[in-house]
Structures are given as C-alpha cells and as structure tokens.
Amino acid sequence: MDRAYILWAVMVAYISLAIISKLHFDQLPPPKPCPLLYALAFTFSMFLGYHFAGRKVPAWVFVIPVLGIALLVGPLGFLPAVSFLGAVVWLKKNPEWFTGRTELMWKILVVSALLLPLPVALMGAIPLLDPATRYSLLKLPYLASAYLLVFALSYKPDSRILILGLLIALVSTFRSSALLLLAAYVLRKGKVEGRVLGVALFLLLIIFLVRHVINVMTYGIWRFSLFEELLYRIGFTYSVYERLFELGMPIGRLELLPSINPRLLVGSFFGKAREYTYTIFGQPVYDFGIFGLLESFFLGFALGRAVKNPVTGVSSLSILLVSVESGLDAFKVPAIFALAILSEVSRECGGRS
C-alpha cells in the first residue's frame, strides 16, 4: 500500500476524534458544520494534488513557494532559503561530489543535530527544568535538531539516533518532535525490531507523562487524566481551527505564514499570552480563506513528487503527519516544497535513495 494513504487516514481519524471530543466535553463548544466541510474538502484536495503529481512539472516551480514564504518571514527565513537553493544548484552542477561521501555527510548531519541544542542548554534553556523556555525563541534549536534528525533517519533508520533524538525531545518536552522522529524511523525502517519499538514507546510515554505533569504544574488544578487530556486536546485544537476559520473566511488575512511564532499569534486571538496549536487546516484557512484549498492541493502535489525518492518522501510524510495536529507554519510549508526539489534533483543527478 502507498504509505501516503496513512496521511489521509490520520487526517480523517483526527477530524472524527475532534468531533467526538467536542461532543463529549462540556467545556468545548459543539462542532460547526462549515469548518467540518472545509476540513474534509482540504483533505480531499490534498489527496487530489498527490494523485496529480505524475504530471510533468519542472523543479523550479517548487522554488516559488520556498522563496515567497522566505521573503514574507524576513532574514530568518530568506537566508536559509537562499543557502538551500544555492546548495541545490551546486549539487546539480557537481553531482559527482557526493560519490563516496554520503556516509560522511550523514554523520556530519547527525552530529550537527545532536550538538545544536547544546549552546542554549548551557545557557540554562532546558524546558524539562524550566518549562517557560519552551515558549521562547530558545526552543528553536531543539526543534531544528529534531527536523535534522528526521532527515538523517529518513536516509538511514539507525535505532541509536532514534533513541538519542527521543531523549532530546524529552529534554525539550516537545511531544510533536518525539512523534516526528518515531514516524520517520518507522516509515523508513518498515519492519521495526520489538526491542527498539518497546524502548521508543516507553520514552514516548515518558515524554507524554512529563508534559502532563507540566500542564498540571502550569495550570494548577487539572481535571483530566492523561488519556482524557489527549482527547480533550484534540477537540480544543480543532476548536482553535474553527475560530481561525471564522476569522479567515472568505479570502484570508495572511498573518500566520509571515510569523516567526504563529502559535503565539494564534493564542493572542483568544486573549492569551501563550501558544496555541491549530491543526493542519488552521493556517491555510486563516491566511488564504477558501483559497487555502489550493494550498492543500499544492502540498499534496509536492508530497507526490517527494515520495519518488524514499529519503525525501519519508521526511515530507513525517512532517505532514505531525502537522495534522500541530499545524503548518513558515518552516513546514517551505520544507515540503524543498523536499520535492531535492527529490527532483536527486533523480536528475542519479542520486541514491
């Protein structure tokens, strides 16, 4: 079976669980029909875009959203985008450079990812010990580390790297990072050893328990158990999306993609100085309104091109899977298109997968 179908199944399951959650918890408003129809249309549009990916389109088409979003974000987005595109152009002209060097490049990538959070950790920014730091820009090295390790696991699913990545996710207390790493490992590995899966799931449970304890400490009396909290979170996050639907329709406001911290911006819409996740549907509908369905189509199209290479395909699919709950932003959207570019270039250069 095509692994991309996991994404459609997860999106439909998430919508279903959100409706159940909103009907179950009195603290949540009842589900609204129009946002539900939009979420289903968004899912179908992405599915449709994926199946149109066989159409011949030059790789440079994917450069447009990468540069466009980078310009919206500013220097923090533009400089990495230009560096990436420069590296791609150089790779196209010098494909022989990577011959015999792929293992070295993988090791450099892994070491860089593992060392990336070290400077901020030495500064005292350890979310496990100081939860407030996970809501500041000091969280970025932890998140960047997770995404680099996802790409490394997509190339070679090494169980040691998975465990180290999960330990970093534990220190950062980011559940999404842990799920992202596990998704990349399982999707790339296929058949996972029972011992490795057991250790990974144990660490994942610890990470979820730690976040549960942090929630209790942060918000005082917390009326839900761990599993009730997970179901409530789905319904609450979906309710955030419904609010973004109301604010963004019909033509959008284009404020989340240009934002360095869109979750904090979304929190401000509710009068809160804290971060809110907003589902995979939230950013497109708020930024583009009904035209957000075109964004979903092009994301599906980019995913369809990325999966032609196992490495970029697993990375792209993993990012989108985690985005179902956490939402899209100025890093994830360009990353999907960038991975499509890498897939195209690797095929042109005859790169290994």
From TrEMBL:
Superkingdom in the source lineage: Archaea
Keywords: Membrane, Transmembrane, Transmembrane helix
Record-linked InterPro entries: O_anti_polymase
Pfam families in alphabetical order: O_anti_polymase (PF01901)
Record-annotated membrane-spanning stretches: 6-24, 36-53, 59-92, 104-129, 162-187, 199-222
Entry annotated with the keyword Transmembrane: yes
Protein name according to UniProt: Oligosaccharide repeat unit polymerase
Species of provenance: Pyrococcus yayanosii (strain CH1 / JCM 16557)
